[in-house]
Design brief:
The protein is an all-alpha fold and 368 residues long. A two-stranded parallel sheet has the order 1-2. Helix 15 runs antiparallel to helix 16.
């Protein structure tokens, strides 16, 4: 079985029928054609670890997940696929960074808990992240306020995540601490801005700079982290381009992904009194549609940086892992553009089938 087939098969074992049919098409392409798609740099990284006693085609067997993989699967959807694709040297710090950021996000978003309590929890989490205090034991009311069992499991695993952080190489751990600290700062600012907001008395951001700053704090910094981690762990195997221009491109890409999330979640945020778009009166439907259209255009520009970012990476696995969120964001933006005024009433979501189809297209190089 070709390496491309093996890697893709590992993702569709628990997938949907359309992907299994798509895999048949990949088989039909033939091993020779597939081999031509795989550069020598790609061969440095194995697809997935082979289980003890497994057959040579172990990639066809269900993969036994470690606890951290179960956490990732429980709290993410498309980004889990990107993390699984990363070369092994990058994967640990990237996964841990995501889980820690997702933990703080869970604390910040527990709407039935008061804003004051959530800010206090974020302070505890921040102090543990910096090493000033032991990992917090979350109050039972905070845990009971979580509607999703996967989110409760994530919070209950905080001690394990901080222990994992201690085991990381020092330089990788520092990058994780830096990016999660920036994200927590953005989440705290969010609570301070919108803590008293309601659907009847909404609060909006003041200007474009405030929105760009927020997008940097909660996502643009992740683009910088991803790039710095890549150069730290892989060196020239990450990219042949200079680090600084690629970092700036990664920042724009991350901001674009966050802006897509903001635009997608606009109806739910408005109902809770939060308007991330800079607008004097969030109840002004015409004004809201106008500013929404302008930021859809900006999001398209920033997401476009993600495709150029992925093209600059050396290995196919890195390119697929990095471009997949851009492909999904592009589909989301298309749905938003076509939504019209109705898009202010209900959120849109790219179907799971389209997510996995994007993964297939990324594997075979059809990203544009």
């Amino acid at each position: 079985m070709g390496r491309l087939e093996c890697e893709f098969e590992a993702f569709v074992l628990n997938g949907i029928p359309i992907l299994k049919r798509a895999l048949v098409v990949i088989h039909a392409i033939g091993k020779l054609a597939l081999a031509r798609r795989v550069g020598t740099n790609d061969l440095e990284f194995s697809a997935l670890p082979v289980l003890p006693g497994a057959s040579p085609d172990a990639c066809l067997l269900p993969v036994r997940d470690a606890p951290e993989k179960q956490l990732l699967k429980g709290v993410s959807r498309s980004f889990y696929l990107s993390l699984r694709l990363l070369p092994r040297p990058m994967r640990g710090a990237a996964c841990l960074g995501y889980l820690l950021a997702r933990t703080s996000d869970t604390l910040a978003d527990s709407a039935v808990v008061s804003a004051e309590t959530r800010l206090l929890c974020l302070d505890w989490f921040s102090h543990a992240l910096s090493g000033e205090e032991e990992p917090p034991r979350w109050p039972i009311p905070v845990l009971n306020a979580l509607a999703e069992p996967q989110e409760r499991a994530l919070l209950e695993a905080s001690g394990d995540l901080f222990a994992w952080l201690q085991r990381l190489p020092a330089a990788e751990a520092q990058l994780v601490r830096e990016v999660v600290a920036i994200i927590i700062g953005g989440q705290k600012l969010d609570l301070e801005r919108f803590g008293a907001a309601t659907g009847a008395l909404p609060v909006s951001l003041t200007d474009d700079a405030a929105l760009e700053d927020y997008a940097w704090r909660v996502a643009g910094c992740v683009g910088a982290f991803w790039t710095k981690l890549g150069f730290l762990t892989l060196g020239a195997r990450f990219s042949a381009q200079p680090a600084e221009p690629l970092i700036m491109r990664g920042i724009a890409y991350g901001k674009g992904l966050q802006l897509v999330n903001i635009l997608r979640d606009l109806p739910a945020d408005l109902s809770a009194g939060r308007c991330y778009l800079p607008l004097a009166d969030p109840h002004d439907t015409h004004g809201l549609l106008d500013v929404r259209g302008r930021w859809i255009g900006r999001a398209g520009e920033w997401v476009g940086e993600g495709f150029a970012y992925a093209d600059a990476l050396v290995s196919r696995r890195l390119r697929v892992a990095s471009v997949l969120p851009a492909m999904i964001a592009r589909e989301t933006l298309a749905l938003l553009r076509n939504g019209g005024p109705d898009a202010l009433e209900s959120s849109i979501k790219v179907p799971r089938s389209r997510v996995y189809l994007a993964l297939l297209r990324a594997f075979i190089g059809q990203t544009r």
